[in-house]
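Researcher: Go.
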Amino acid sequence: MSKGAIEGLQAEVIRAKELFATLTPEEWAAPSGCTGWRVQDVAQHMAAVYQQIAAADTIEVDVSAAEGAEATAEVVVQARKEWTVDQVVAAYDEWSEKGVAALAALQEPPMADTVVPLGDLGSHPMHLLGDAIAFDHYCHLRHDIGAAVDRAARLPKDPTVLGPAVDWMLAGLPQMCADALASAPQQPINLVFDGPAAHSFCLTPGDPAAGPQWIIANGADDDAPVIRTTAHDFISWATKRADWRDTSTGDVSQPTVAAVLDVVNVI
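Model: Structure:
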């Protein structure tokens, strides 16, 4: 899906630019769905992510002491709190184009299949970075800016973005949640996504002989309980922005299912 993510990101950049052009001063200053961040801070973070991909050495902030992806993002946001809206928009305009171009260049061998460590996000082939940013953009626009600006929440649930976003989340989930899943009931669960980017996956405990890490398999296990949701809602609850119980159906009352889903936390 990674090459498809580039097409989706190109559409997302257009949506973001069009949205930013309509925001009022009050909307820019409104609290977003990211705790402690205004809408302006979320937009600045989106620009900074592209800048880190295209030319990390141009970021004026020292993030070397930050531990983890979320802490790194927080350092940059706090350093740029005094930026004007015009500065944020200009940064997004510049770095979104450069960032998408850099991501497109990672879709071809040998770079595409080169596995790199990404701290608490796990280790991934570089082509998956396109999927990661599809996830980042989809989530920040609709769930975070969308918490303050209804027209952001109503942006299209575009499968060309949703599909790669989910691919990134499922690739990262076993690594990001390894310790929590190791302590959870060893209960396989079928995740069935209805609506845009519809698909079925099975979250399965790993083989103890091969290692404790859980795996995500395409398709369903006929013997495993089923949780039905949407890809859009999965992005919200699997990142702890919402409770999975609010938008999921199926075998939701099984205690072992609840215990597994409660520890899912994708970043």
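Model: The chain has two domains: 2-158, 177-261.
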